[in-house]
């Protein structure tokens, strides 16, 4: 069993850290929130006295909001890369921009440390159940070292390639998810207005060529898929503001490599408008309500 420093005990990080505790690891947590640290301690983890305490751990996992937080924790003179001992494994599971992920990975490699970017799919439910999908970027040796720890928190661990490719996979997937959710929403709205019931259109399209995850697992209208957020007035799930964050990352990445992502850009504009109008907390499938003219 390892001593694991866990930085960022938020909605995702806390349940992930608790799964590491349950697996018998000695988990030392660091967060700005006292409440989150208290919950970790009550569950058998420990509270770090600060980043210096985290730096003494054999493995460090981070689950932070954005690239600037990751750069601050790992990089610079006061960052973990300068403080940890040789052989420490660094796993950043935050969803951040590819450029920052590659810069930090480069600094870690320069210091002789194993590091992977390992963003996740599966949301808070997946974090609690230990069924997350990890998309991992980094050298093969670092991936193999990280895998046993990721397996405690996830059900599917995929090595995407070199440093930054985990983040690349994550934002490309989520850009596609936004586009497909908008497409499914437009189709259901049009079908309704043409006189089809939601259930009838679902029965037909879900076994036809328009079938996709946004329809069959996360249907944006109430009824056909009982577990989807549409059945609880679009309570998240995966909030509009979270989707917006990932679409912004995708747009920045697309611009940096001159990739053409017209539908990604349009999706970004639609989710940005929803957020500006005060619907940032609505599940991202709530875009159906905007498309249907309900909000
Ligand atoms: P969150 O805001 O709930 O948690 C972030 C935590 O980081 C907070 O507890 C905050 O106090 C802590 N933090 C911020 N700056 C810190 C610092 N300098 N030092 C220590 N702690 C610090 O966010 P979340 O929903 O847990 O998401 C975390 C990451 O996971 C994000 O990058 C997000 O995009 C990604 N993600 C989230 C979901 C989801 O459904 N929530 C799904 C997939 C990926």
UniProtKB/TrEMBL annotation:
<comment type="similarity">
    <text>Belongs to the HIBADH-related family.</text>
</comment>
<feature type="domain" description="3-hydroxyisobutyrate dehydrogenase-like NAD-binding">
    <location>
        <begin position="164"/>
        <end position="289"/>
    </location>
</feature>
<keyword id="KW-0520">NAD</keyword>
<protein>
    <recommendedName>
        <fullName>3-hydroxyisobutyrate dehydrogenase</fullName>
        <ecNumber>1.1.1.31</ecNumber>
    </recommendedName>
</protein>
<dbReference type="GO" id="GO:0051287">
    <property type="term" value="F:NAD binding"/>
</dbReference>
<dbReference type="InterPro" id="IPR006115">
    <property type="entry name" value="6PGDH_NADP-bd"/>
</dbReference>
<dbReference type="GO" id="GO:0008442">
    <property type="term" value="F:3-hydroxyisobutyrate dehydrogenase activity"/>
</dbReference>
<feature type="domain" description="6-phosphogluconate dehydrogenase NADP-binding">
    <location>
        <begin position="3"/>
        <end position="161"/>
    </location>
</feature>
<dbReference type="GO" id="GO:0006574">
    <property type="term" value="P:L-valine catabolic process"/>
</dbReference>
<dbReference type="InterPro" id="IPR036291">
    <property type="entry name" value="NAD(P)-bd_dom_sf"/>
</dbReference>
<dbReference type="InterPro" id="IPR011548">
    <property type="entry name" value="HIBADH"/>
</dbReference>
<dbReference type="InterPro" id="IPR013328">
    <property type="entry name" value="6PGD_dom2"/>
</dbReference>
<dbReference type="InterPro" id="IPR015815">
    <property type="entry name" value="HIBADH-related"/>
</dbReference>
<dbReference type="InterPro" id="IPR008927">
    <property type="entry name" value="6-PGluconate_DH-like_C_sf"/>
</dbReference>
<dbReference type="InterPro" id="IPR002204">
    <property type="entry name" value="3-OH-isobutyrate_DH-rel_CS"/>
</dbReference>
<keyword id="KW-0560">Oxidoreductase</keyword>
<dbReference type="GO" id="GO:0050661">
    <property type="term" value="F:NADP binding"/>
</dbReference>
<dbReference type="InterPro" id="IPR029154">
    <property type="entry name" value="HIBADH-like_NADP-bd"/>
</dbReference>
<dbReference type="Pfam" id="PF14833">
    <property type="entry name" value="NAD_binding_11"/>
</dbReference>
<keyword id="KW-0101">Branched-chain amino acid catabolism</keyword>
<feature type="active site">
    <location>
        <position position="170"/>
    </location>
</feature>
<comment type="pathway">
    <text>Amino-acid degradation; L-valine degradation.</text>
</comment>
<dbReference type="Pfam" id="PF03446">
    <property type="entry name" value="NAD_binding_2"/>
</dbReference>
């Amino acid at each position: 069993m390892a001593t694991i420093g866990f930085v960022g005990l938020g909605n995702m990080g806390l349940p992930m850290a608790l799964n590491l505790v349950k697996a018998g690891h000695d988990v030392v947590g660091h967060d700005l929130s006292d409440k989150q640290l208290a919950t970790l301690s009550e569950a058998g983890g420990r509270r770090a006295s600060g980043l210096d305490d985290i730096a003494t751990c054999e493995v460090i996992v981070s689950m932070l909001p954005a690239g600037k937080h990751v750069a601050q924790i790992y990089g610079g003179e006061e960052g973990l890369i300068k403080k940890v001992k040789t052989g420490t494994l660094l796993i950043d599971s935050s969803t951040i921009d590819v450029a920052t992920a590659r810069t930090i990975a480069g600094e870690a490699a320069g210091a002789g440390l194993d590091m992977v970017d390992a963003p996740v799919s599966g949301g808070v439910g997946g974090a609690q159940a230990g069924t997350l999908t990890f998309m991992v970027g980094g050298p093969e040796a670092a991936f193999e070292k990280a895998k046993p720890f990721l397996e405690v928190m996830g059900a599917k661990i995929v090595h995407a390639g070199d440093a930054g490719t985990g983040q690349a996979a994550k934002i490309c997937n989520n850009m596609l998810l936004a586009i497909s959710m908008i497409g499914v929403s437009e189709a259901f709205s049009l079908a309704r207005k043409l006189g089809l019931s939601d259930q009838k259109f679902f029965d037909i399209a879900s076994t036809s060529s328009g079938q996709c995850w946004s329809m069959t697992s996360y249907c944006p209208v109430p009824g056909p898929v009982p577990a989807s957020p549409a059945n609880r007035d679009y309570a998240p799930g995966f909030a509009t503001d979270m989707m917006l964050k990932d679409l912004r990352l995708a747009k920045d990445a697309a611009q940096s490599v001159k990739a053409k992502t017209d539908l990604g850009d349009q999706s970004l504009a639609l989710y940005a408008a929803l957020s500006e109008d005060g619907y940032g907390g609505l599940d991202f499938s709530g875009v159906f309500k905007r498309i249907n003219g309900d909000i």
